[in-house]
Structures are given as C-alpha cells and as structure tokens.
Amino acid sequence: MNRARLQGVTKFLCVGAISADQGAKDAVRLAGNYSAIYASVGIHPHDADKFCDLEMFESLLSHPKVVAVGETGLDYFREWSDFKNQEVLFRNSIRTARAVKKPLIIHTRDATADTLRILKEENAQDVGGVVHCYGGSVETARELADINFIISFTGVLTFKNATSLAKVAATVPLENIMLETDCPYMAPVPFRGKDSEPAHVRLIAEKLAELRDISVEEVAEVTSANARRLFGILLNG
Ligand SMILES: [Zn+2]
Fold first, then answer.
1. Could you report the per-residue pLDDT of 84-134, keeping only the tens digit for each?
2. d(CA 71, ligand 1 centre) in Å
3. Is omega for the bond preceding 173 within 30 degrees of 0, making it cis?
4. How is the chain split into domains, by residue range?
5. Domain 128-231 falls in which CATH fold?
6. 3-class secondary-structure state, position 150
7. Ligand 1: distance of its center to the CA of 108 in Å?
8. Thinking of the domain 1-69+76-104, which architecture would CATH place it in?
9. Rg of the Cα atoms in the chain
C-alpha cells in the first residue's frame, strides 16, 4: 500500500472471488481493517462446480465496504467448470446484484456473445458494472456501454503484442474506461511475468495516456472518477 501511495494510488478495491468463499472472506476482512480498501464479493466462474455457502455470501454483501458483486461471468477458455453451471451461477449473481443494488464485476473469456446475451436477459443494466481485463472489440465495448457497463484494462495494455487492444483503448470514450492490475496477474512491462501490485496501475495509466495523446493526470482523474461513480466511493470516503 505504501508503494502504491508513492505512485498516486490512494484507494484499493480488493476483489474477493477466488477459492470459492475464502477469497470473499479475506477481501471483506481486509476492507474492514483498512479505510482505503474496499471489497467485492463474488463466485468466480472457475468455481461454478464447487459448493459455496450462499447465506454467508449474502451476509458479506451487506458489509458497508462491499461495493460490488464479482467477479462473476463465463470462462470458456479454461473450461475449469461446467458451462451450464457457470450460466446458472452467473444468472444468480446478476439477480443478487440487482437485489442488493450493487454493480457487477464481470469476468468473460471466449464467451462474449453469451455474456452479453445473459446480461441483457437478466436486466443487468439496472445495476451496471465493469468488464474486467477487457479483451474484446470496439463494437463490443460500445454494446456494453449501451447497457451501462464500462471496460477495464490491465497491464496487458503495455505488452508489445497487444496491438488490437491498444486500438480499443485509444478509441473507446475515456468515460467508459477503468484501470486495474488484476493482481497478482498481468503485471505491466517492465514487470511482465512477475507478480503485479496496485502501484503498477500507474504504468497502465501512462500507457493509456500515450495511446490517447493526453496527460497521465487526465487519465488518472477520469478513470478514478469512473470507478468512484460506479462503486459509489466518495472523494473523501
Ligand atoms: Zn477475471
């Protein structure tokens, strides 16, 4: 956290969606211990075949520092869980988000069409959200914006071979973009292949500024405002 602050990163969203319910518990505990840390609670599509204590999830969701439901979504790339179970879990997570009026953090891999269809069928527009670690097209980003979803870039944006992603990042309105690290994955250049950490978000902001030919301050201001608006985090809160 200290290294992050030195790079201008002052707020943290710890995504609690790994190892079934253990990640959620850990994220909420961190958020309870540090005023600068917020949490999300969700069941990752990788865990769709596992048992999860849904009552425990509902109680975690009522914690005042829990600002989103997720990661939730579909992963057809890894195939670590049954696709049908992923869909059931995804639909239930959207319904939960609507019931508690919190935005969604979406994980989608090789599943763009089904993700969009289910978001629409379940009226996810009412709560909106963010598609994290975005890897889609400009057209898909526009479709997502139409249903109240924004997209988020990780350190992948700094990779040399990420040319189509760079085009997307340069084209999509800045108001529809957020930045993230996806710690401990996707560390930006020059840390590629190592663990990423919140301080690295500055390197992603610098890359986006370069791609759009604007200042890093403008990138920081607008993407931070987008995150605060989406998650309901006040400037001084
Ligand atoms: Zn993810």
1. 999 999 999 999 999 999 999 999 999 999 999 999 999 999 999 999 999
2. 6
3. no
4. 1-69+76-104, 128-231
5. TIM Barrel (3.20.20)
6. strand
7. 7
8. Alpha-Beta Barrel (3.20)
9. 17
- Alpha carbon of 152 to ligand 1 centroid (Å): 11
- What's the rounded Cα separation, in Å, for the pair 31 and 45? 23
Please, what's the b/e burial string for 20-37 (b: 16 or more CB within 10 A of its CB; e: otherwise)? bbebbbebbbbbeeeeeb
CA 6 to ligand 1 centroid distance, Å: 26
Centre of ligand 1 to C-alpha 184, Å, is 11
Per CATH, 1-69+76-104 and 128-231 having the same topology is answered yes
Query: What pLDDT was estimated at residue 65?
Result: 96
| Whole-angstrom distance, CA of residue 132 vs CA of residue 130 | 6
> Whole-model pTM?
0.96
Alpha helices per DSSP H over the chain: 2-6, 22-33, 54-61, 83-100, 112-121, 138-146, 163-171, 201-212, 216-231
DSSP symbol at 188: P
Give me the phi and psi of 148, to 5 degrees please.
Answer: 75, 30
